[in-house]
């Protein structure tokens, strides 16, 4: 027998939430993985007899936003499980913005925009340098672009559909039942504590007063 429409909508909302959380977390992990790799080899030519100077640019050096966006995306994936309403909308926008930053960072490096980062390498810049060549390993900035696209899609999913999704805290509140019954050992402990306070544990508690005294 098929479930009710409400159950179907609830299941669909949970699946969408799971997709958004996994998308943001995966995008963050891909970004951090790409940022730790070698993105470019920089070689500076110098007049003879001076030898050329070479250096390596990691993703974190060539595009610092990649590391920052990756960390934010991992945190946002956790936040999506706990927030609702306007908070979830804000997290979704943040995820999409981080995705845009990743796409821009990766595309800029693929287009050759690493001159500023290359100039910070030791020996690569200076009056003795006659020419500089940069060889970009396209796979890692390309991975950052792919992570950015995934983050943008996850963020847009949150913005457009997140209002109907459940929150982790609400589920826990709904599942919380009445307090478990107290055991005989617990009641015995309560009796000893009452004796320590000088009270008689066999006496019933006083009834609450009603009305005002004359």
Give a verbal description of the structure:
By secondary structure, the chain is mainly alpha-helical. It has one domain (5-171): Up-down Bundle (Butyryl-CoA Dehydrogenase, subunit A, domain 3). Helix content is 60%, strand content 9%. The chain has eight helices and three strands. Strands 2-1-3 form a three-stranded antiparallel sheet. α1 (5-35) runs antiparallel to α6. InterPro entries: Trp_biosyn_TM_oprn/chp. This is Trp biosynthesis-associated membrane protein.
Topology of helices and strands:
Layout: H1 5-35, E1 38-45, E2 53-58, H2 59-62, H3 64-82, H4 85-110, H5 115-119, E3 131-136, H6 139-161, H7 168-175, H8 184-196
Antiparallel strand pairs: 1-2, 1-3
Beta-strand percentage range: 5-15%
Query: What is the N-to-C order of secondary-structure elements (H for helix, E for strand)?
Result: HEEHHHHEHHH
Task: Specify the number of helices.
Answer: 8
Q: Calculate the mean pLDDT score and round it.
A: 78
> Which of globular, elongated, flat, extended, rod-shaped describes the shape?
elongated
Q: Tell me which CATH architecture applies here.
A: Up-down Bundle
CATH topology category name: Butyryl-CoA Dehydrogenase, subunit A, domain 3
Rg for CA atoms: 30 Å
| Total domain modules | 1
**What portion of residues is helical?**
55-70%
């Amino acid at each position: 027998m098929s479930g009710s429409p409400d159950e179907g909508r609830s299941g669909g909302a949970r699946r969408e939430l799971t997709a958004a959380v996994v998308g943001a977390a995966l995008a963050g992990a891909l970004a951090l993985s790409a940022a730790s790799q070698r993105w470019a080899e920089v070689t500076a030519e110098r007049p003879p007899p001076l030898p050329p100077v070479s250096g390596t640019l990691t993703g974190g050096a060539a595009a610092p936003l990649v590391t920052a966006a990756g960390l934010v995306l991992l945190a946002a994936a956790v936040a999506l499980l706990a927030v609702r309403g306007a908070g979830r909308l804000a997290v979704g926008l943040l995820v999409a913005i981080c995705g845009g930053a990743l796409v821009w960072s990766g595309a800029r490096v693929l287009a050759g925009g690493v001159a500023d980062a290359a100039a910070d390498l030791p020996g690569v810049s200076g009056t003795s340098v006659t020419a500089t060549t940069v060889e970009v390993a396209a796979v890692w900035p390309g991975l950052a672009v792919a992570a950015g696209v995934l983050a943008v899609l996850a963020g847009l999913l949150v913005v457009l559909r997140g209002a109907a999704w459940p929150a982790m805290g609400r589920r826990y509140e709904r599942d919380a039942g009445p307090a478990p019954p107290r055991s005989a050992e617990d009641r015995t402990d309560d009796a000893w504590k009452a004796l320590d306070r000088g009270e008689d544990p066999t006496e019933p508690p006083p009834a609450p007063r009603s009305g005002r005294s004359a």
